Amino acid sequence: MHFVGDIRRHHVKSNTVRSVGYDVDNWVLQIEFAGGKVYNYFRVPPVEHAKLMKAASIGTYVNREIKPYFECEEEDGLDE
């Protein structure tokens, strides 16, 4: 899959995740990690985004509930 579009990300309190954005129309979750890389995760239901944002540890939630289950792509960074 490939996503073309802009997703506004919001900074989060996490040691491993810098910011999170969500496109509700396309079910695309965008995560910027502390190292600066940005990934789009596809077919992420709105309920998963809500759970992520309420998680006690965003980084742990991403590793346990997002990465293993949703297809992703790394952003190319051409628009930065």
Question: What does this protein look like?
Answer:
This protein is an alpha+beta fold. It is 22% helix and 29% strand. The protein has helices at 46-54, 58-66; strands at 9-11, 17-23, 28-33, 38-41, 72-74. It is globular, with a radius of gyration of 11 Å. The model has no long low-confidence stretch (mean pLDDT 93).
Q: Terminal Cα separation, in Å?
A: 21 Å
As an assembly, this protein is single chain
| Gross geometry | globular
Q: Helix/strand-derived class?
A: alpha+beta
Features:
single chain; 80 residues; alpha+beta; five-stranded antiparallel β-sheet; 5 strands; 22% helix; globular
Sum this structure up briefly:
The chain is an alpha+beta fold. It has helices at about 45-55, 60-65, and strands at about 10, 15-25, 30-35, 40, 70-75.
Write the layout of secondary structure elements.
Elements: E1 9-11, E2 17-23, E3 28-33, E4 38-41, H1 46-54, H2 58-66, E5 72-74
Antiparallel strand pairs: 1-2, 2-3, 3-4, 4-5
